[in-house]
């Protein structure tokens, strides 16, 4: 029945409109989910390709080491590996170029894109504005590559476009066979790559399955045989085409890895085998600061390098890396003694054997130890030796600074070695704060500080022989003496320069004329000695002495001694 014969009521029109909106929303949701799927898969494949590059680099590093250790044995296989590396790099570059060019096609209307890092741990977590075109309107391949490196597939628009891909990859082909376009180009290069790798490997090529099957035919949705380029790129949405290119890049690197690994295994095929196993567990340190990292490297001695082994360390199950080791790392958040136990599982012809091990270490609170090597205060104007250490840290990794450099100078003490310093206060009161940190890679970690009291040097004491100020001195000792000395007593245990006597004034009671006798220097002259010879037990001798102090100042000290029998 037509609408003219049976007009719709306003309510029916509203229901019909809501159904249309609902249908459109469903379509949009499905489309958005598909696009997000392309982004998720594409980013995951990009990450997988990055990991494959790391694995390849490790294999080439092992080849380099083997070549260095035994060039006669390794050189031929090493040269073959380098030739394959060159062929693979050239093909990967071609696939990348086609990928960036196609992205430029589907994003042709966007002069600038805002890129979010695909990896949340990326060092640049802010959006970046990247121009996709040069000033003349041509595609900027470097910018597109940079956007892919940072954001992966996440920023690419029109991933659901199903028009641009067919023409770009298949040209103007109408039938099942394409003769031009990017798909034809990449297929030809893959075929050439496989041929060149096989020629480079020679007889060794029989041991490698390169994959990259682009020459044959597959079945399309109607069940008809279809060429590789038609099957992958005819009426294919842009997101699927880009994922196909990313997958082809992965297959090229996998072929490279398999070929180079086979060559490396042939280098190692004549290595010795061993029938004894020893577990070797080495930690970075047995004394760890709280918050630091404890790292335990576990491997087995005399093992077959072609075989991986597994280990359970601290409750974690791990597989050995390419260098034949399991590396266990844990953050030390609590202090005290710790024990790590584990088991290594090694496969042999009879199955798997297990080997237990135990490792102990100690976690300490971060702390710096400040140790004055002479006394518990620092004295103004002189060198005060100090030793600073951080338990568990090497002395050359300790960084020592003054909180206020205007209060003192702080320099290493080369005579005493690493960890020893000289503090020379410029003030004679208050406190001087010293900070200690340790180098931790490119950073420093604060370990603690200490405040030292600044004080002036105390007055030295006057001695007559062994007699201290205020004590008695035997008359015979006094008459045989050549003069007083000025020094610090045993209670001031500080090794430094002795004060110098400049001038002294002497009074002797009960001896006529022996008042305010002056003498230059430390040694008594004949006139002073003549008065001392007249002294008798019961007399007192008072000395007032001007001295030059180790800090460069001048002081006057005085003392009285009782003359005894």
Secondary-structure topology with pairs:
Blueprint: H1 10-69, H2 71-106, E1 112-115, E2 128-131, H3 141-151, H4 164-170, H5 182-201, E3 217-219, E4 225-227, H6 228-233, H7 238-268, E5 278-283, E6 287-289, E7 293-301, E8 310-313, E9 316-319, E10 325-331, E11 336-348, E12 351-364, E13 369-372, E14 378-379, E15 384-389, E16 398-402, E17 408-412, E18 420-425, E19 431-440, E20 443-455, E21 461-463, E22 472-474, H8 475-479, E23 485-487, E24 500-508, E25 517-520, H9 526-534, E26 540-548, E27 554-564
Parallel strand pairs: 6-12, 14-20, 22-27
Antiparallel strand pairs: 1-2, 3-4, 5-7, 7-10, 8-9, 8-11, 11-12, 13-15, 15-18, 16-19, 17-18, 19-20, 21-23, 24-25, 24-26, 26-27
